[in-house]
Structures are given as structure tokens and as C-alpha cells.
Amino acid sequence: MMSDTEATLQAVETAQALYTSASSTRANNELQAEIWWLESEALTRLGRAEDAHPVSLRALSALGEAPENSKLLADIYTSIARSSRVLGEHGEALAYFQEAYQIYRDIGETRSESIALQSMASIYSAAEQYDRAIDYFERALERYRDPNLDLAAFNNLANALTKLGRFEEAEAAFEDALSIAVEMDSATLRARILNNIANMRIRAGELDAADAAINSAFDLVGRDTDVEWARFFYGVYAETAFRRGDTDLAIDQIARVFEGLDIASTSQNYLEVHGVAADIYAGAGLWRNALAHHRAFKRLGDERARFVSSANSALMNAQFDFTEQSLQIERLRNDTIEQQYALESARASQRLMIVLGGLALLVLTAIILFLNFRATRARARHLAGQLYEDNATGLPTRAAMHTFATQNSDCDYTVIAVKLNKHTEHVELLGSQLAAQLVRQAAKRISQISSVRSIFLLEQSVIGLVLTNAADRIAAVTSALQKNSPIDVTVHELTYHLPIDLGIGCARDIDEATAASLQIVSRASLAMHGIEAPETDSLPINSAQLMSRLVEAVNSDALELHYQPKLNLRSGECDTVEALCRWKDRDYGFVSPAHFIPVAERLGQIRLVTEWTIRRACEDVDALARSGDAVAIAVNLSGSLLADNTFVRSILEMLAGYESWVSFEITETAVIEHKDRAFANLDRLSLAGIKLSIDDYGTGLSSLTYLKQLPVQELKLDRSLVDGIARSQRDRLLVRSTIDLAHNLGLTLVAEGIEDMESLSVLQLMGCDAAQGYGIAKPLPIADLKQYLRRHRQELLDNGANGLKNFGNSGL
């Protein structure tokens, strides 16, 4: 009807003028309402929602105070909802879409009903309530099938499924959308869907498939296309190249995405691409570019967080649930059946004296009604279960929380929201079923720790504790939760360590208290946002099975430590080695640390691996000392563990007597991500006499503010900054300035990734303190390390001051 929106608006204005001149007496309200409705629709489609909104409200008022249900009324409600959504009034938009949906359903307008369902689904997707959005998209597809509507529904459904890590279902929905686009012979639609598929493939770790999807998209629209959204095709290429380690290609492709754009004013569509760009440029050492994209990412991320928080708060009082609706219908049916049953029983009694021969029929009728009544009651109980109990976790829902509030009215509510971090990763790695079990077990553990029994599921990964008139208990409950963070949860004999964030809301209204607590944990989650390291290996087992095998390997002492020497460039001695974990599985052979360490991080098993590493390092310190090879051992420490007070207490006990012989290497980024607890725990380690080192310095957005605050004694310069020092004057200036910076701060500097004598000589001339790399020695098992140390000592004795000239000869 509105293929040319500008023309439509002009026609509406003409109709309005004719209507006004023709209506010298009482206006026809419905005609006036329809004219205003058409005008509001045209304005909305022209991007003038602020003008459309009052016009649509005038259309509604033209129908009077209590208009009868009609398609026009529902269409006006829909128009109000659309403009409200654009203006950010999410709760109002949902409420009007609900009203429109009910009318469309009552009058049998199934196509419009499906459109309303899709519109509500989009609101929930924008609020990141993906489970609810999926339910609405699926119901929209059930109500009415039409290619134009189905394509949008399948595509948006697939995007929501992707967000939850349900990749197989997402793939099926994308294929349905793609089939419709093929039938419609639309190359543009096919290309845009292929872009979405490519992003899904990246999240699933299928990089080749992601590239293939974008290749197909370019085949459809051509590589010389000037459409704005084609920029994101290059974003896919950039991310897959970066994940494969091809930084040069990644830089080339990401530059195409932002060519000609002011990155300080990009839209929300560029949020994730800015994050990828920041990582790519940081990995290449292009700090100015990385910082610019990091700022853009943060700007858009903050906007997104405010939007999601606002949307969730607005939707909280406007929830529309099919289960609630069905339950109410069933309750009405119950009442009707009860009345029918009572009526028929009374009639049976009256007729018993009159028509004895009809007794059997009446009894049969009563029995049928009774059985129907009982079955209906059972259905109602089932629906009540769906409403008040989450299907996946079995935990009480928000609806149950409202019932609790009704039973405990006239009191002050305190809602403590407990956010289980890394839930999305758990869904991706373990699957939704096992991730739901984690949430359920976490809720039980949280209840035990806090001694609070009124626990509800507020969001997919947020558990709510509700206290009534108990302001004096808040401190005790939150303190108990913080002391026990991360929460230890055991599922299928595997223990996961789940870090948490807390949010507290207090109000007379339970919804207000809940909204406040959720807003706090939402901000905390944004502050903790970071892109996880990709998994680089491919194994024929899933991540949960991999972790089970890893736990078994740790418990059976089947892991090994290899040690890479650090060469002291002042003395020529090797006085420190770095411990690197190695694992050879009995069935799958060597499993790269680049694979199992990130998975252990994400599934809460990194503490187990780290504690084993520290114990073995202490044992090997003793073994090396006994053989006359007294060297210190450096162990890599995860940033998440630095935030764990119980872990720090544990390692301080383990290192009693080894404080001078075991040191820790940490990344600056990891410290900053967990800075509140990490700074305090680093101080505890430093005061105990344990040496601390900043690892991979130069790969992140390094901050002098944080660097001067950290109680560290050493910087390790990343290989990316020293690769070109023998050839590039600029690289030498950068490295020299970093060495001077370290020395001015009282730190020693270690250069990583040394591969040749020329680079080593340059570093020595610059005053670098130590070096490490395959050109010096690769990581060695302890037996080989002992041989290396003996040969190296002999070379120093033989060569004297020239002991470094053949530094690589000792390597194995």
C-alpha cells in the first residue's frame, strides 16, 4: 500500500484537506481516524517517528473513549507502538503491540497477528531477552505463513538462536530464510542472510565456512558494490584472518570496513566490528588505531548497555506471556465447567423424581463433565508450572516472584541479583542443557551460602535473592557471597568455578527493586567485557569432554612442565626459566595449550591446572637444586585467579619457603579487567617476597597509570615489538624507549621471541636485561633442561666475555 511513502503522505494530506472542506457539520470519526493513521504510518516510514507519534494518538482519540474492536483500531495501536519503539519507549510499544495482537486474534486477522508477534519479538531481541524473542518468532511462524513475513522471521529467529549459542537450530533457520530469498530471486536478501550466516560460523569457530559464506555473498552482489552494509563482509574476512594469525590480511580487510567513515560517530551496527578492529591493531602494535577503535567500541558499548538496561526496566511491567494468557483461559474454562457441573447435577436431582428412565443419561453426562473438569484442571496445573517454573532450569520465575510478593505485601523488598559470568561461553561450549544444569546447581549453592530460601530466576544467567524487611541482613548476605566467589558448582562429577557479580535494589515495589539490581549487574558485566582468545585446535570431542579428560590428567599427574630458559644479557647466565604446561592425551595425542588453556579458563578449571603447575614447579626447583642447577621458575597466572582471594591464600601456603624461587607472570589486561581484587592480591604476593612480571607487554592498550601502580619487578616485551629491531630504526626507537621506561620505573626488561643473534646483539647494546626465545632455547623437559644448563655453563667458562656469541648452540 505504501511503496512510495512520500507520495502516500502527499495523498493523505490531500485527503485531509478534502475531508475538512466536506465536513462542515459533524465529522465522520472513523474516516478522520483512518486519515490520521495513514499519515502516522507514512511519517514513521520516512524516519519521522517524533512527528508520527502524536498523529497516531490523535487517530486513536478520534475513535472515542471506548472504541469497538476493529482492524482500524488494531492498526492504530500498531502505529503507536512502532513510533514508540523508535522513540525508545519500549514498555509503551510492547503494551500497544499486545493490544493490537489481541484484536487481530479476536477478529481473525492472522497475517496482522503474525506481524504483531514479530514486532514484539524484535523488542525482546533488542532487550537481549533472546529466549522470549525466540518464542515470539516461532509463534509468528505458526500463526501465518507468507514469504515476505517468513523471511524476516526466520532470519531474526536465527540471529537470536546464534546469540544463545544454539548454532544447529540457527543454521536451520538461516537455511529456511535463504530458501525463501532464492524463491524471491533477490540477490540482495541472499547476500545479507549469508553475512549473518558468516557471523554465526565465526561464533561457532568455523572460520573456513564463514569465509565461504562471504565469498558467496560477494558473488551475488559483486565486489564493486557500493551498498553500505557490504562493508561488513570485509569485517568477516578481517576477523577470520585475525583468528588464524594473519595480521597483515586482517589489517587490510578491517581498513575496508571503515574506509571513509568517521569512527567517532559510527552507529550501533559497528559495535562488534570496532571490538575486532581494536584487537587487530593492538596485535599489530598499531596503538593509535587500536585506541581509536577501543574508544568507539566503549562508546557504543556504553550506549548499548544503557539501551538494554532501559529496555529491560520498561518491559518489566509490560511483560506479555502466552503461558499467562493460556492459564487465564484455562481458569475461565474451569469456572465454566464447575458451573455446568453444578447445574447439571441440580437438574439431575430434579429430574430423578420425574424421569427415572433418563437417570443413566444424566449420570453419564455428569461423569463426562467431571472428567473434562479434571482434565482441564490438570492442564491448568501444567500451564501454571510453565508460568511459575523455568523450563530449562526448574527454578522459580519472575511470575513466581510476583506471587511471593503478593503473599508478602506491605513490606520493603531487597533484591540481590547474582550474575553468573561467562554464561554465554558455557552455552556455546557445553550446550544449553548442561549450561542450564550449571545455573540450577549454582542457585542451590547460592541459597546455601546466603541462607536465603526465596530464590528466583530473574534472567537467563541472573539469580535473584529476595529479602523482606531485612535491611540488617544485606551486608551479611552479600559478604558471604563475595567471600565464596567464584561459586564452586559440580555437574557430572566436574567442578566449575563460576565468578559472580552482585547488584542490590531496595524498594517498596518488588519490580523497582529488581530493576535496580539488574541495572547494577548489567553495568558490572559491561565493565568486565573482553574478547576471549580463540580456540586454535580442532579435536573430535566437545569442550566438556575435553575438560573431563584434562581434570583426569591433572589428578593422575599426566601433565608435564617444559621450561624455556631466560638468558641474562648482563652476566650471560641462565638464572630463570618459564614453566609451560604440556599435555599428551592417551587417545588424541598432543593437545596444544592454545586449545585447552582458554577452555579451562572459560569452564572454571584454570585454578586446578595452575595449582598443579605451582606444585610441580616447587618440586622441580628442588630437583634442579639437587643437581647443581639452581634456577628460579616463572609460572603464568590467569587474571581471573588474581580476583580469587581463596586461590591467593592457597598459593601463599604452597609457596612457603619457595618465595624467592617461584615467580608469576601476568598480563596487564588481565589485571585491569579484575583490578579491584587483583591489585590487593598482587600486593599480598609482593609483600610475601614473590617476584611479579608483566607478560606480553605491548600487545594490549598499556597504561602507564596502571603500570606505575602495580607491585611488579619485571616487564616482558612481546615478540611483536622486537621482531624488526635489527632492520627498523623505528622499532629500535620504540624498544629503546620501553627499556628506558622500565629502568626509570625500577623494573628489569625481558625481550621475548628472540630468533637470531643480530636481534640479541642490538638488545644487549640497548641495555636490555634478559632475553628469551627459540633462538636461545625452546621449552625443554626437565631432563633436557639440566643438560642445557650444564652445556651453557661450560660455554661461559670456555668463552668468558664472549659467552653470548654462540648463544643458540646450547639449544636443543
Total of DSSP H or I helical runs spanning 4+ residues: 34
The overall strand count is 15
* Structural class assignment: alpha/beta
Strand order of the largest sheet: 7-8-10-11-12-13-14-15
Shape: globular
Largest sheet: 8 strands, mixed, barrel
* Uncertain regions spanning at least 5 consecutive residues: 21-27, 316-334, 351-359, 526-540, 805-812
The CATH class name of the largest domain reads Mainly Alpha
Ends: how far apart?
Answer: 77 Å
CATH topology of the largest domain: Serine Threonine Protein Phosphatase 5, Tetratricopeptide repeat
Portion of residues in beta strands equals: 5-15%
Share of helical residues: 55-70%
Rg for CA atoms: 33 Å
- Level-2 CATH architecture of the largest domain: Alpha Horseshoe
In round numbers, the mean pLDDT is: 79
| Tally of separate domains | 4
